[in-house]
Amino acid sequence: DSFLLSPMPNEPSSDARESAQSLLGRLKLRHLRLILALSEAHTAAAVAERFHVSPAAVSKALGEVEDIVGT
Predict the structure, then answer these.
(1) What average pLDDT does the segment 37-53 reach?
(2) pTM of the entire predicted model
(3) Is the model's pLDDT at 2 over the cut of 80?
(4) In this structure, what are the phi and psi dihedrals at residue 38, rounded to the nearest 5 degrees?
(5) Which residue has the higher pLDDT, 52 or 16?
(6) If 0-12 CB within 10 Å is exposed, 13-18 middle and 19+ buried, where does residue 36 land?
(7) What is the DSSP letter of 70?
(8) How far apart are CA 70 and CA 23, in angstroms?
(9) Does the pLDDT value for residue 52 go beyond 70?
(10) Inter-CA distances, 22 with 29, 34, 39, Å
């Protein structure tokens, strides 16, 4: 019951929503799969083996993610 009475968290600003929508519009499913696989496998070589691609392909895709998110 206390959950129903607690105030709702602040809504994100319109700039934050637009930024998130832009980010999601540019990230592709393969990028998200790569991020998940890296979080599980911890190395590009292991991810490359899992997806039957070269480590260079994993590195390139990770570079794309970095460009998209700005890191």
Answers:
(1) 94
(2) 0.66
(3) no
(4) -65, -35
(5) 52
(6) exposed
(7) T
(8) 10
(9) yes
(10) 15, 19, 23
Beta carbons of 64 and 71 less than 8 angstroms apart:
no
Separation CA 42–CA 60 (nearest Å): 16
User: Which residues, including other chains, have CB under 8 Å from residue 30's CB and lie 6 or more apart?
Assistant: 61
Q: What is the model's pLDDT at position 50?
A: 93
Print the SS3 string covering 9-56.
CCCCCHHHHHHHHHHHHHCCHHHHHHHHHHHHHCCHHHHHHHHCCCHH
Give the residue carrying structure tokens 């480590």.
Answer: 55
d(CA 71, CA 65): 9
